[in-house]
Design brief:
Order of helices and strands: HHEEHHHHH
Number of strands: 2
Shape: elongated
Length: 144
């Protein structure tokens, strides 16, 4: 068994603040053991798990989505490459939709996005009389 890591060592290796590690532990994303002095100790695979959480956050996944996905990993052993591939493939449709929305935003950002705030000069053409106000708040032309 490899030596366990302190919270500071995990933070240093992953670039994640110790406060975030404690928060993620409270949410059940990571876990630690305790010393007799009640100090946290992490197994080395926690580094991979924390790195995965950071990568998932960077592509816009919520902590709830990440927690649900991590819950599908085996608790009795270190996840394999196959485990990680299965987990990430489950997000493919979600990420494809996010990419579609980002591309739509990029392509329409210089025009009307449905609220008029970015296109006051052409609002009378794209949203005359603020017709989209009846749909509710927000940029409606970016929603599917």
């Amino acid at each position: 068994m490899s030596p366990q890591l302190t919270i500071g060592q995990v933070a240093e290796r992953t670039g994640v603040a110790t406060s975030a590690l404690r928060y993620w532990e409270a949410l059940g994303l990571i876990s630690s053991g305790r010393t007799t002095g009640n100090q946290r100790r992490y197994d080395r695979p926690t580094i991979r798990r924390v790195s995965f959480i950071r990568a998932a956050q960077r592509v816009g996944l919520s902590l709830e989505e990440i927690r649900d996905a991590l819950a599908t990993l085996p608790g009795s052993r270190t996840p394999t490459a196959h485990d990680w591939a299965r987990l990430s493939s489950a997000w493919r449709a979600r990420l494809d939709e996010q990419i579609r929305r980002i591309e739509l935003l990029r392509d329409r950002l210089d025009g009307c996005i449905g609220c008029g705030c970015l296109s006051l000069e052409t609002c009378a053409l794209n949203n005359p009389g603020d017709e989209l106000a009846s749909v509710g708040p927000g940029p409606h032309r970016l929603d599917p």
